[in-house]
Design goal:
Distance between the termini: 46 Å
Shape: elongated
Strand content: 15-25%
Structural class: alpha/beta
Length: 514
């Protein structure tokens, strides 16, 4: 059956059932009623569809047999059953009426954490674009939306506590000298609207403020938070920047506490992402305040200084009732608070630190660069590779019990350095996000041909939602096309600042404790 993610159990029965304007929808939840009203239906056979809370061992059970019934223990389960039914209706829709195969579907997710990440810093995307993405994420049962809000190029949420962030840290005159201005931010009302819209669809919006690196935008607005106090200009380049927050300055922790408190009031999510990736520490090594702090706290090196910094911020989050998430580099100090969840994206070929953390019981989820970074061209991360990737394969030597207990799920990040418009955003996101959604929900068995056959129905629904995508054939380019896409992508990254970024990248890896 043309359903994505592939359900846990499907049994087809004899006969068909009609869904039409004559079908009576019995449901206490307005969001489910509105979700089913997505096509123009004509009158047809009179029958019933009933959504009800009831006892089941599954996330939901869907029965189609003349009438239609969805049973679940929770409203979320009913919503998931509704998304499956929507796909069946779309697949069977002809001339105003949908003809559905009689069946029984019993379904449940493999992982509890199924996530998509959008960077709105490098290029800004507004609330309407985000809501359009949420519609598709809900359709394929993704339940987390990771929103990257701060980086060297900007801070993208209205701040009434620190208005200078919006006045001085949200605009650059161009990118690599192209003269095209980039700016914008979400107002507090925008954030509330996004959070509510996602919440109605059982998607939790997880904010990220990257700390202590990727923080040049903060220094543009408040240079006193840096090690040098120097007033910087907005950067038109990407990559890794060594201008970071000063770990030895108490004003930095006061700023972070006030900023995270303001954001926590906007984002009710249980989780809060603190970044922690790619932190070059050259300024910390030269900074008197940082060195004095290291001596007072008996820290052996700047890697442990990052651990100290991150743990202080984690304590702030705990006081706000949040569970911290960090990128895997934050593990390298060896002193990271046990409560922090690790997002695994890049830890070398053997993933030593990540494996050790998992074996010791740390919670984590997988968004490995290859093949889950969907801002990369399809020539580097093909649709088929994204689909076939098994997230637990990274942890050889870790017990099956630890993997089952501590791997929370998967995420596909979409960074926007080279994604400047909505059309490109959609073509990068889809259909690879749909492939990751299936991995997050369905059992581990893989059959790409079967997936692609089912995929075309969902892509048709994207067209109905006016959401673009890359055709599956183009999403699996041949070797020559793939090489061309890869070279074009790498060439686009070449600029004078890239050399400095590479130096900073090497610096960020110094002192890693593995």
């Amino acid at each position: 059956m043309n359903i994505i993610p592939r359900p846990f159990e499907t049994k087809v029965k004899d006969g068909n059932t009609c869904f039409s304007a004559s079908t009576r929808v019995n449901c206490d939840f307005d969001i489910i009623k509105s979700e089913l009203n997505f096509l123009d239906f004509e009158e047809g056979e009179v029958n019933n569809i009933t959504f009800k809370i009831g006892d089941t061992d599954f996330d939901y059970e869907l029965t189609i047999d003349g009438d239609i019934t969805v049973v679940a223990k929770t409203e979320e389960g009913l919503f998931h059953g509704c998304q499956t039914l929507k796909q069946l209706i779309f697949d069977g829709y002809r001339d105003g009426v949908a003809t559905l195969e009689n069946c029984v579907i019993k379904d449940k997710p493999r992982f509890p954490y199924r996530s998509f990440m959008l960077d709105i810093v490098r290029h800004f995307f507004d609330k309407e674009v985000i809501k359009g993405l949420i519609d598709i994420l809900a359709l394929v049962k993704i339940n987390r939306f990771h929103l990257h809000l701060s980086d060297n190029q900007g801070y993208r949420v209205e701040s009434t506590v620190f208005p200078a962030l919006n006045e001085k840290a949200n605009f650059r005159p161009g990118t690599k000298g192209d003269g095209v201005p980039v700016g914008g931010y979400l107002t507090k009302d925008d954030v509330r609207e996004i959070v509510a819209y996602a919440g109605e669809r059982f998607i939790e919006v997880v904010p990220e403020v990257d700390l202590p690196g990727h923080t040049l935008a903060f220094l543009l607005a408040m240079p006193e938070l840096g090690c040098t106090g120097e007033q910087y200009a907005p950067t038109e380049s990407y990559g890794i920047d060594d201008r970071i927050l000063c770990a030895g300055n108490e004003k930095v922790y006061d700023f972070i506490e006030k900023l995270l408190t303001e954001l926590s009031e906007l984002f009710p999510s249980k989780y809060f992402h603190l970044g922690g990736d790619e932190v070059p520490k050259s300024q910390w090594r030269q900074c008197k305040k940082c060195q004095e702090l290291m001596a007072r706290e008996h820290l052996n090196d700047c890697e442990e200084l990052q651990g100290y910094f991150t743990n202080r911020v984690i304590n702030i989050l705990k006081s706000l009732g949040k569970t911290p998430i960090v990128w895997n580099e934050a593990l390298y100090s060896g002193i990271l608070d046990d409560s922090a969840i690790c997002q695994y994206w890049s830890d070398g070929k053997k993933a030593t630190a990540v494996r050790d953390a998992l074996a010791s019981g740390r919670k984590m989820y997988v968004s490995r660069t290859f093949p889950y970074y969907i801002d990369y061209p399809h020539g580097m991360n093909k649709l088929k590779s994204t689909y076939n990737f098994e997230p637990t394969s990274c942890f050889k030597g870790v017990s099956a019990e630890n993997i089952d207990e501590n791997i929370m799920g998967v995420e596909c990040p979409l960074w926007t350095e080279w994604v400047a418009d909505v059309d490109k955003l959609h073509r990068q996101a889809f259909p690879r996000t749909i492939a990751v959604a299936e991995t997050g929900w369905s059992t581990p068995e893989k059959d790409y041909k079967d997936f692609e056959e089912r995929l075309y129905n969902v892509l048709g629904m994207l067209e109905a939602y006016e959401i673009g995508y890359t055709h599956p054939k183009k999403a699996n380019p041949n070797p020559f096309k793939a090489l061309g896409e890869t070279l074009a992508f790498l060439t686009n990254m070449i600029e004078p600042a890239a050399i400095k970024s590479l130096i900073n990248a090497r610096d960020a890896k110094k002192g890693m404790k593995k």
